[in-house]
Inverse folding.
């Protein structure tokens, strides 16, 4: 059941096939990749204080070492804790402490920030710079046999924000990720070893998990030379690699099709763009289909059921002749292989077709629970169903349409931002009486953060001071892009802030300022 066996098996079947590449250059065959990960496993277990089941954190931008470390940790019977390289050092510290990570692998751009907090994290015993002499030594020693782990063994501890704004660690097991793999082949794309996946999105999120089906089939993982997403670089890579798959947030797809070079680009080598993490505007979806052809697959999932709740297939994207074509494109598709989906009321009774309720999910892909948080686990995994907190409606053909996000989640550039986390930072300012954070539409990022702030009587507030405060405590991408100072927050009779009115205020204000009528 050990996920490391996916790599080991492919190394036996395709020893000389390209496994890892940077830009246009292959840097490891499957035999080399498997060997390095097996040697890393031995080196990890040889570190003082490390025992099977311990957590290994990775704070790195995309690089070949990321895949080596994931499989090396699994090979050793350890769990991977992926961390977004864009996090604030305080956020890194919280995750490392909560996960009890004993080892953290970092890239050089994060070395200073992680080193600053390391002394305050009692559990953290080892920090290793990927690509350093120490790292090279670790992957050059003796190999070890893969650990014998069962399906319930923790593999991936993914931190996803909750209603309190505190990140919660979703515990995903080897069996969970095996189920995700099976669903990928059945419901997303039945790939083969002749193609590749280009990691233009972070390894720490969906793109990292999607390495699993590609490794199982012996396909190559390609890391752009930039380490991230650049439309011109994407088009350039399509001239070198064949059968290319990407995982992208909708905002990335939009940037790709709106790039100045998009109309002249040769996309013949593009196999699939799997997109998800936020809604795709219908106009953008139609434009992408017109430019790229029937090469889009939409997925809906969340950290607690990674990438594997529903999917809208390539075929369904291309059925322009069906009467409800636009409605289908506006949906997130139908339940993936091995997954059941319901829409229920507040008492978990099924809602009539077309009626909005909370989305519930059941299947082998659903997480084991939240790390060190039995209360949240019990609330979320009630009655054998994952309560997603997302609102939606099912139609007679099983198509699920997301209608709203409970918890007032903001999705910007494919990253989740929870308002309360930002609000709690703003309330640290001595002149802030109260505040409320919402998302407003943004043409490129999907949404951006806006903060409504009420000052204490007689106090003065400067936007730059609020911005400085946010940058001291949270990641840059989470900070508000606008601070609107108002006299009072709109509230209902129970004292709850009416965020719908705040959204209407932003909408009317933006229309007025743009001269719209």
């Amino acid at each position: 059941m050990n996920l490391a066996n996916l790599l080991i098996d492919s190394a036996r079947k395709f020893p000389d096939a390209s496994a890892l590449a940077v830009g246009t250059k292959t840097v490891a065959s499957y035999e080399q990749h498997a060997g390095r990960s097996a040697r890393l496993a031995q080196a990890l277990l040889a570190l003082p204080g490390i025992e099977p089941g311990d957590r290994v954190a990775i704070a790195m931008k995309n690089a070949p070492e990321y895949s080596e470390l994931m499989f090396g940790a699994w090979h050793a019977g350890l769990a991977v804790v992926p961390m977004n390289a864009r996090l604030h050092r305080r956020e890194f510290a919280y995750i490392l402490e909560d996960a009890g990570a004993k080892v953290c692998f970092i890239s050089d751009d994060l070395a200073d920030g992680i080193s600053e907090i390391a002394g305050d994290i009692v559990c953290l015993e080892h920090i290793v710079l990927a690509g350093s002499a120490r790292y090279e030594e670790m992957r050059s020693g003796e190999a070890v046999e893969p650990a014998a782990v069962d399906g319930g063994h923790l593999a991936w501890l993914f931190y996803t924000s909750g209603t309190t704004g505190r990140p919660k660690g979703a515990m995903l097991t080897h069996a969970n990720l095996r189920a995700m793999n099976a669903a990928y082949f059945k419901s997303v794309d039945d790939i083969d070893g002749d193609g590749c996946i280009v990691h233009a999105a972070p390894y720490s999120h969906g793109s990292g998990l999607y390495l699993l089906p590609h490794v199982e089939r012996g396909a190559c993982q390609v890391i752009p030379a930039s380490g991230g997403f650049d439309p011109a670089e994407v088009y350039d890579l399509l001239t070198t690699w064949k059968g290319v798959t990407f995982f992208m947030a909708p905002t990335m797809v939009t940037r790709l099709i709106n790039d100045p070079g998009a109309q002249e680009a040769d996309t013949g080598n593009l196999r699939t763009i799997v997109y998800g993490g936020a809604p795709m505007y219908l106009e953008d979806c139609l434009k992408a289909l017109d430019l790229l052809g029937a090469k889009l697959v939409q997925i809906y999932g969340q950290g607690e059921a990674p990438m594997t709740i529903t999917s809208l297939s390539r075929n369904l994207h291309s059925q322009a002749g069906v009467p409800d074509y636009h409605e289908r494109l506006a949906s997130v598709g139908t339940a993936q292989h091995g997954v059941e989906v319901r829409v229920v009321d507040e008492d978990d009774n099924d809602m009539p077709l077309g009626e909005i309720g909370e989305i519930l999910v059941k299947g082998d892909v659903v997480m084991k629970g939240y790390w060190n948080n039995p209360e949240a686990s019990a609330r979320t995994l009630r009655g054998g169903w994952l309560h997603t907190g997302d609102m939606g409606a099912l139609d007679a053909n099983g198509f699920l349409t997301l209608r709203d996000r409970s918890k007032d989640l903001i999705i910007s550039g494919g990253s989740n931002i929870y308002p309360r986390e930002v609000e709690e930072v703003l309330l640290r300012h001595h002149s802030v009486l109260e505040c409320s954070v919402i998302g407003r539409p943004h043409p490129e990022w999907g949404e951006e953060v806006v903060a409504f702030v009420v000052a204490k009587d007689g106090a003065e507030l400067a936007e730059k001071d609020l911005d400085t405060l946010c940058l001291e405590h949270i990641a840059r991408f989470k900070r508000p892009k606008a601070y609107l100072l108002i006299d009072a927050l709109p509230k209902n009779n129970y004292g709850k802030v009416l965020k719908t009115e705040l959204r209407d205020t932003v909408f009317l204000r933006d229309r007025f300022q743009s001269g719209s009528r």
